[in-house]
């Protein structure tokens, strides 16, 4: 159920708001689902680091928690896009609109910082991906990603959604297909999963599987709050529900994460200490497939970093001006490149998400309470 509307006067429309090309109801749902998936796949998902540290490292218990993660993603993605749809064309700010002025203000300050840190992680992941796959110097992939981000961020929000909305489902599908292939090939090893975990224990970001799932999910979702709200408010038809798109997006992402986690569990002896386990497994299947999967991973990194940097720019002063908004995005891309050149990818994956997750608990606790109160009020008898 979407969050109840907060009372706020309409204000200026966001920079780069405009109608996307007309789509059918199914087309709109798929574009929304694709844009959402693109935001979440990123470097750590495409290379397998997220699945490894937050799910596979906990064995079968970690695989079970993927189901809970999918449900949590579905609730959040539908709630926030519907919240934005209810404020179509307004400069509505989801943190203050849902959490109130004080807590919302604090979250608004922290959100750009978290987004930027994860964008830096994307840049670092681009370097690791192209280095592992093609033998490039570490800076080569980082510079290439930064150049692609500079180009995309100059297109504005509508162009961004159109690009990543089509790219996202393709990338997630390819990751899922390769993961399924790896899983089938190593199916017999699943019977030895418990033994392999003792012998080849990969690094876990958090020891408890349920806490690990919760912190990962909330960290991913809280940084997406402004983007998901904008995705709803900037849609082509304010009367068209965004719920189908959110449900489809959550299902696609959850299935892909589950298959990937299982594939890594089945292939632990090969990848337990790898920085990019999916690339290693793809190359093990077929050298050509390894190259193709490296490109998929790189595009996944790009499709996450671009909306993240756009979201940061959309929270900065002067965002009402399209020129200022786009120049801010360009400057952020350059800064992310500079930071990404000096920071380590795998260290960032394990360090950032848990800390962001603790902050996100506050936001989603308030969102849940608001929805319960709103639902209770709507069901109360009227006299």
From TrEMBL:
Which keywords belong to this entry? Answer: Membrane, Transmembrane, Transmembrane helix
What superkingdom does the record give?
Bacteria
InterPro entries per the UniProt record, alphabetical: YkvI-like
TM segments?
25-47, 59-81, 102-123, 143-163, 170-188, 208-231, 243-271, 291-311, 323-343, 355-373
PANTHER family per record: CONSERVED MEMBRANE PROTEIN, MEMBRANE PROTEIN
The name this protein carries in UniProt is Putative membrane protein YkvI
The protein's organism comes out as: Micrococcus cohnii
């Amino acid at each position: 159920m979407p969050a109840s509307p907060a009372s706020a006067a309409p204000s200026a429309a966001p920079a780069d708001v405009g109608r996307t090309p007309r789509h059918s109801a199914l087309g709109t749902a798929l574009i929304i689902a694709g844009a959402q998936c693109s935001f979440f796949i990123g470097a750590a998902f495409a290379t397998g680091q997220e699945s490894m540290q937050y799910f596979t490292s906990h064995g079968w218990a970690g695989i079970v928690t993927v189901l809970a993660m999918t449900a949590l993603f579905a609730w959040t993605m539908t709630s926030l896009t519907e919240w934005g749809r209810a404020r179509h064309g307004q400069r509505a700010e989801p943190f203050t609109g849902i959490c109130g002025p004080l807590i919302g203000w604090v979250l608004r300050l922290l959100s750009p910082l978290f987004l930027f840190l994860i964008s830096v992680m994307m840049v670092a992941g681009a370097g690791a991906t192209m280095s592992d796959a093609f033998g490039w110097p570490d800076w080569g992939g980082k510079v290439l990603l930064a150049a692609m981000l500079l180009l995309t961020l100059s297109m504005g929000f509508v162009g961004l959604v159109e690009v990543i909305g089509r790219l996202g489902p393709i990338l997630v599908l390819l990751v899922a297909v390769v993961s399924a292939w790896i899983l089938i090939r190593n199916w017999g090893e699943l019977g030895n999963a418990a033994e392999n975990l003792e012998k080849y224990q990969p690094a876990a970001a958090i020891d408890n599987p349920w806490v690990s799932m919760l912190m990962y999910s909330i960290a991913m979702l809280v940084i997406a709050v402004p983007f998901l709200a904008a995705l709803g408010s900037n849609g082509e038809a304010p009367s068209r529900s965004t719920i189908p798109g959110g449900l489809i997006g959550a299902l696609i992402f959850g299935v892909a994460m589950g298959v990937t986690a299982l594939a890594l569990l089945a292939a632990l002896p090969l990848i337990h200490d790898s920085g990019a386990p999916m690339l290693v497994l793809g190359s093990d299947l077929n050298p050509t497939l390894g190259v193709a999967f490296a490109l998929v991973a790189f595009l996944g990194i790009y499709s996450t970093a671009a909306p993240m940097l756009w979201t940061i720019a959309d929270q900065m002063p002067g965002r009402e001006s399209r020129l200022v908004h786009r120049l801010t995005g360009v400057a952020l891309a350059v800064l992310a490149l500079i930071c990404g050149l000096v920071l380590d990818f795998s260290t960032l994956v394990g360090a950032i998400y848990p800390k962001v997750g603790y902050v996100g608990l506050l936001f989603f606790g308030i969102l849940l309470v608001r929805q319960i109160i709103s639902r209770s009020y709507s069901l109360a008898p009227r006299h």
